[in-house]
Design a protein that fits this description.
single chain; alpha/beta; Rossmann fold; 6-stranded parallel beta sheet
Length: 436
């Protein structure tokens, strides 16, 4: 089947690669000419493990192409996916301006029956909103071309997106049309997915927000619990391990740290809280999840500074800049809060990250960027681990200690073994873990 995808960002390109993998002919359009030119040169302008290789393969097989000609792909494909950005407004609401513009273009150019599928994360009711926008454009053209709108949220983990897109754990299809549902099932026929759920558009939209907010809640719960464990002299890592043995709870997302980030959890939890407030409801749990995440990094930094004595004039190394390993995404990354805090405290800052440094340079041009972890640690009074990259968890910390000025390790991801670090002669501080 010929599939159009509007939006050549993280979700759009990964989804395109997955459809091409399963034999569909996919056309990706975006109005960002530089981005499209990069894809046409077989270069992905962001990092996602395995994505660039997959795109090269499918482009060469003529299963995948990139263009700025949105009109052409709208008219040439029966199914059109919207995978444009929905960033947060200052109020926390989702910005639907890109969704609206894409819907207008569809209504302006569509020439026969289409299924319009919203892959972007959007507030409940957006499928209906898109339908109205398209209908208004058709009325302006004095046309009554039929179409259906569908919600098909993405559940991609950055760093594992190709795996999740090709072999999804679940597929949710929100549609009120039997015709559209049949077409969606045909699209996903070759996918080895054990769970395909068909429901209403509003239910599908809510499933996405509820899923991300619940996972964020698990993280914030453990981060808040870590603060109590810290006071009581309890090891939160052991608590997490014991909790995870309960099959009703599970181990995933129970690791305490310095907060979640990325393009989904911060945006979606805030948006869900705003959706409720607009209807005169207060989601106390979701609001608390956001509040804990906003303050977790500073709580940890204040503890670290107290242990070191002061950050002022000290050489501090930040290891890890991306919000998680195996991506170059720094959106809402805890490292940005850490660097901002250190700058205000007049620390001397050096950093290293395998993928995220070019992005951070645009925000903090005045700090020192190093080519490897040992170079970053040279003459450091303390190191703060902000992302649990393998380059740090598998680092030769015995050799690292020899180049540091003082052996302080502040592990914001509980990624190292405290006993091992103590035996190497480090002063080690994790999140919610008692000193040995």
């Amino acid at each position: 089947m010929k599939i159009a995808i509007i939006g050549a960002g993280y979700v759009g390109t990964t989804t395109a690669a997955a459809f091409a993998h399963h034999g569909h002919e996919v056309f990706v359009a975006d109005n960002n000419q530089e981005k499209i030119k990069a894809f046409q040169r077989l270069k992905v302008p962001f990092y996602e493990d395995g994505l660039e290789e997959a795109l090269k393969e499918f482009i060469q097989k003529n299963l995948l192409s990139f263009t700025t000609d949105i009109k052409q792909i709208i008219q040439g494909c029966e199914v059109i996916f919207l995978a444009v950005g929905t960033p947060s407004l200052t109020t926390g609401e989702a910005d639907l301006s890109y969704i609206k513009e894409a819907a207008k273009e569809i209504g302006r150019y569509m020439n026969d029956y289409k299924v319009i599928v919203i892959k972007s994360t959007v507030p409940v009711g957006t499928v209906n909103y898109v339908q109205e926008v398209i209908q208004d454009e058709l009325k302006a053209r004095k046309s009554n071309i039929p179409f259906d709108t569908v919600s098909n949220p993405e559940f991609l983990r950055e760093g594992k997106a190709m795996e999740d897109a090709i072999d999804p754990e679940r597929i949710v299809i929100g549609s009120d049309s039997e015709r559209a549902e049949t077409i969606m099932r045909t699209i996903y026929k070759e996918f080895r997915c054990p769970n395909i759920m068909c429901t209403s558009p509003k239910n599908a939209e809510m499933i996405k927000y509820a899923s991300n907010s619940f996972l964020a809640a698990k993280i914030s719960f453990m981060n808040e619990l870590a603060r109590l464990c810290d006071v009581l002299g309890v090891d939160v890592a052991e608590v997490s391990k014991g909790m995870g043995l309960d099959s009703r709870i599970g181990h995933q997302f129970l690791q305490a740290g310095i907060g979640y980030g990325g393009s989904c959890f911060p945006k979606d939890t805030k948006a869900l809280a705003q959706i409720a407030l607009q209807r005169n409801l207060s989601l106390g749990i979701v609001e608390a999840v956001c509040a804990v995440n906003e303050t977790q990094a500073q709580w940890f930094l204040e503890k670290a500074e107290n242990a070191l004595g002061s950050f002022s004039g000290k050489q501090i190394t930040v290891l890890g800049l991306t919000f998680k390993p195996d991506t170059d995404d720094i959106r809402e990354a805890s490292s940005l809060k850490i660097i901002d805090y250190l700058v205000k405290k007049k620390a001397l800052i050096s950093v290293f990250d395998p993928k995220g440094m070019e992005h951070v340079k645009k925000l903090f041009p005045g700090i020192s960027y190093k080519t490897d972890p040992l170079q970053a640690l040279t003459n450091a009074d303390a190191a703060i681990i902000a992302t649990e990259w393998k380059q740090f968890t598998e680092l030769d910390w015995k050799s690292a200690k020899k180049v540091m000025a003082q052996p302080y390790i502040f592990d914001g991801r509980n990624s190292l073994d405290p006993e091992v670090m103590k035996n190497l002669g480090y002063v080690y501080m994790g999140v919610g873990r008692p000193p040995l």
